[in-house]
């Protein structure tokens, strides 16, 4: 069945086969710490969320501040920029890849390059930041209807923003069309013939997940029984399952907006399926119409259950996180929203230790104040 249904749904994944999920590719450990403001992000306890869900504990991996940006996306954008630009310049990956090494390569060979990306907000802002750090130009393409605060954040990094007349898939097509010797496309999604860069984006995300695994393995936090990951094109979800598929969690849960349900629709169909656009959820980072082909196999096999949520579910999760002292953006709260909306269907109970991944802090302050009511 194509696209959007009117109420949230829960699909048990007939293709789940976690033993077949790939192992994570990890960026060189020297790279992310070489970027300005690098720090491990916190795992926060959310007792009010745990109480509402009826589970033993909820931990929130809080990416509302990462490398000076309000989302985890810079982890993927930065590593993909390093790998893509070095490849574009015909240079080998250094023994210890760092920002300075990339700056030196760009300065010597290609100070006239432009980085190009399509985005719902966070990825493009992160690519724009990378261009600024490298002294390069950036062109960032956004769907129609992108809110001013997100556009301003990108222009604030010095990038040119172009608004397409259409949705995220149209923005992707417009970015791909710019690719040439002087324009390097840093996309977080993939298509036939363009897979290396989005693969490196997924690898870059694993720094965040590895931090969670390190805490578990050090015995600082409980091994989770449930992990929820929000899905746009599924690249982030691929990074999550590459770390968690082989661990004991009884449930890996993928979460999408009901109006941007391309991954769950594809999983139900057993093949990549494009849903009609444009997508208009308030969970802007998840407004995608087609799963990424480099993420697809691992998402198809790597999730036990997939659920959809409404915008109201996201608002509810944002308020609950706020009560726990955590500021979440719409897409950032989506994982928790999925668990709240489907707690019964997922069989959540006092035996469960839950990890949710707060992928974004407040990126639309006007909407945030409205939702939180203060
Ligand atoms: C805040 C946030 N969370 C989650 C995602 C989902 O990532 P993906 O598109 O890789 O599924 C995005 C994507 O832009 C995002 O911005």
Describe this structure in words.
- With 374 residues, this protein is of the alpha/beta class.
- The protein is globular.
- The longest helix has 22 residues, at 196-217.
- The strands form two sheets. The protein has a seven-stranded mixed β-sheet with strand order 1-10-9-8-11-3-2, sandwiched between helices. It has a four-stranded parallel β-sheet with strand order 6-5-4-7.
- It has 13 helices and eleven strands.
- The chain binds pyridoxal-5'-phosphate.
- Pyridoxal-5'-phosphate binds at residues 71, 73, 120, 122-123, 188, 230-237, 285-286, 288, 331-332, 359-360.
List the helices and strands and how they pair.
Blueprint: E1 10-12, E2 43-45, H1 47-53, E3 57-62, H2 73-88, H3 99-109, E4 114-118, H4 122-134, E5 137-142, H5 148-155, E6 160-163, H6 168-177, E7 183-185, H7 196-217, E8 226-230, H8 235-244, E9 251-257, H9 262-269, H10 293-302, E10 305-309, H11 311-323, H12 334-341, E11 353-358, H13 365-372
Parallel strand pairs: 3-11, 4-5, 4-7, 5-6, 8-9, 8-11, 9-10
Antiparallel strand pairs: 1-10, 2-3
Helix pairs in contact: 2-4, 2-7, 4-5, 7-8, 8-10, 11-12
The chain binds pyridoxal-5'-phosphate.
């Amino acid at each position: 069945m194509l696209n959007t249904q009117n109420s949230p749904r829960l699909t048990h994944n007939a293709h789940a086969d976690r033993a077949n999920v790939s192992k994570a590719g990890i960026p060189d450990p020297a790279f992310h710490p070489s970027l300005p403001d690098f720090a491990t992000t916190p795992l926060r306890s959310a007792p009010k969320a745990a109480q509402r869900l009826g589970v033993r504990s909820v931990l929130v991996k809080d990416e509302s501040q990462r490398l000076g940006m309000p989302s985890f996306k810079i982890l993927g954008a930065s590593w993909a920029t390093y790998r893509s630009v070095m490849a574009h310049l015909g240079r080998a990956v250094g023994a210890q890849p760092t920002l300075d090494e990339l700056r030196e390569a760009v300065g010597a060979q290609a100070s006239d390059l432009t980085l190009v990306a399509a985005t719902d907000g966070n990825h493009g802002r992160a690519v724009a930041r990378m261009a600024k750090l490298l002294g390069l130009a950036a062109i960032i393409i956004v769907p129609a209807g992108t809110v001013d605060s997100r556009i301003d954040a990108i222009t604030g990094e010095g990038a040119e923003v172009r608004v397409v007349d259409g949705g995220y898939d149209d923005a992707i097509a417009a970015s791909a069309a710019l690719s040439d010797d002087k324009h390097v496309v840093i996309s977080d999604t993939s298509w036939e013939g363009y897979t290396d860069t989005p693969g490196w984006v997924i690898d870059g995300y694993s720094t965040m997940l590895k931090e969670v695994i390190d805490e578990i393995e050090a015995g600082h936090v409980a091994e989770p029984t449930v992990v929820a990951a929000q899905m746009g094109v599924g690249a982030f979800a691929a990074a999550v399952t590459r770390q968690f598929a082989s661990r004991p969690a009884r449930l890996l849960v993928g979460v999408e907006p009901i109006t941007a349900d391309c991954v769950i629709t594809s999983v139900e169909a057993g093949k990549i399926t494009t849903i009609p656009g444009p997508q208009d959820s308030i969970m802007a980072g998840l407004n995608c119409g087609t799963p990424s082909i480099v993420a697809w196999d691992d998402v198809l096999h790597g999730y036990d259950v997939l659920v959809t949520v409404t915008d109201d579910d996201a608002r509810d999760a944002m308020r609950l996180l706020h009560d726990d002292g955590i500021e979440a953006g719409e897409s950032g709260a989506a994982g928790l929203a999925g668990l709240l909306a489907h707690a019964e269907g997922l069989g959540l109970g006092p035996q469960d230790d839950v990890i949710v991944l707060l992928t974004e802090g407040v990126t639309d302050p006007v909407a945030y104040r409205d939702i939180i009511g203060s």
